[in-house]
Protein 1
Amino acid sequence: MSVEIRTVTSGQLPLFVRMFEVAALEGAGDAETAVLAEYLEPATNLGAWLGDRLVGTASHFDVELTVPGGASVPASAVTMISTLPTHTRRGISTKLMHHQLRQQREAGRIVAVLEASEGRIYGRWGYGPATRHLTVGMRVRELDFHVDLDDDGSFEFADDDSIVHFGNPLWDAERALRPGRLSRPPQWWAMTLADPPGWREGGGPLLAVFHVAADGTPDGYALYRITPRTEGHIPQAETKVYEVVSPDDHVKALLWRWLLALDLTGTVMVDGLADDDPLWWLPADLRQVRAISSREGLWLRLLDVQAALQARTWFQDGTLSLNVVDPVLDDQSGRYLVVARGGRATCERTGPLDDGDRSPADLTLGVDALAALQLGGVDARTLAGAGRVRARSGDVLAMAARMFRGDVAPHHAGGF
Ligand SMILES: CC(C)(COP(=O)(O)OP(=O)(O)OC[C@H]1O[C@@H](n2cnc3c(N)ncnc32)[C@H](O)[C@@H]1OP(=O)(O)O)[C@@H](O)C(=O)NCCC(=O)NCCS
């Protein structure tokens, strides 16, 4: 019997989620399964079926991705990729991913995005790592601040309604300033705020706090969770911060100062801090903000190379010919000419892949490497050094590095 890809119905979603939980080694209970099933209701959920037996899962839903310069592009957020452990390594995920990529492209999405459980899975399907994810820790009992920050506002806890009502517009305002950020559909907020006990990693419930400006309007918020702890008789709770959001960096710094000064806490962990967040510069002793781990963050897949390259802002004029190899959407493989002038670029398809008969393109690269360059998160010279990009000459490579560079470091926050 061969594997068939079919869309999963709404009634099959609990089964779909439970299969994913088995594959992803998540020992979830009914509450967690119900929250995920509701989250997936508006998504396209693809099942790999052996007759009436579900052996593989893949979901995607529409979001918008911010690209360098601040434009938003139609993106497809991919999640729930799994194969039943009894059926792995026989091409089931490959079949699902190929099906999904074609479906996303037919739906007019320009890029697809995902968060990976492991670093070696998605490159083969044309995804490239486009942001880095930094986990940071601080011992806050010894922490003092470099300068005293002025604040004529106040702090207020947010309930589920107010965090969506005021928080989502604040998220959107910050998202417009930062390549790599995704829009958050209502189901994202519903899933995050549902916060079932099995997702709390032993900590307390998810908490949300606003910074409120002097005129009474929330102008920033933080999402965090506290795990109470004591050592001897000394309180040493851990605060895990998921996000501190405001379009105004001063407000962000105020939120950090508030979080770092909470009574009874010993450590603050930050899950995914941007390289240029004001937090790095707040303490008097800068070494107190310690990077604990660094890994790739958002994986990006160009579904339409031309549209993706034309959607971003180019901060350096120039002309580049690209020889792009796409292992799945092979009609995208070929030569492209990018002409960037005054911030915008045209990207024209100029022919099939190089065959050695004509002059080589300036850069030859996989569509995964091109995706890694797209948000400006890595230098083209770094990829060339690692053998991921081949350049016609050192000068051409240096120009490509300048052209692909963004104006703000890309960053992704929040799971999906
Ligand atoms: C990752 C996963 C979905 C792959 O499913 P699968 O059906 O085994 O994948 P395929 O058989 O199509 O494998 C395709 C290729 O990827 C390789 N591969 C797949 N998953 C891999 C992994 N985790 N580590 C290393 N290689 C992997 C396979 O070896 C195969 O290589 P080949 O083409 O050179 O033979 C599956 O292992 C799984 O469900 N893992 C647990 C859940 C998970 O991590 N999901 C991802 C969430 S982001």
Note: Residues 23-24, 81-83, 88-94, 116-118, 120-121, 124 surround coenzyme A (CB under 6 Å).
Protein 2
Amino acid sequence: MSNIRVCTKCDTAFTLRSTLDRETRCQTCRGSRHNRYSNQSNQRAKALEWMDEVNDRLTSLEKKLLALEEKVNEEDVESPVESLIDERLKYKSTEMQDWVEKKVLKLNGRILKLTEEVEKVKGLLLKKGGYES
Ligand SMILES: [Zn+2]
């Protein structure tokens, strides 16, 4: 029996340690056991770090969104008073309200996108079995 086998990953011939060696990959593709695992946990740590970052961004976006929504609500409450004030000011207020509403919509879109991204990464991590929520 030959002590040479062809790597299943890169098709390079490699030497077996013994005829009983069941390794199917060359030294390069195999890497050391230690490296393989530390590499995996590095990727996992990076993914989790990124998710934390996204979470922070979502939290700050949510805060901004709430503040903007409060502003919109305030404007609504003030509307009876508005009828008493100058037309120009009223127009400005409507303009402001439109602007805030547009901002809220934009933020909502971003939050949805970010949430989707987080779910995607979560799915990938779950597939790898590396993430417990
Ligand atoms: Zn190989």
Note: The beta strands are 4-6, 13-15.
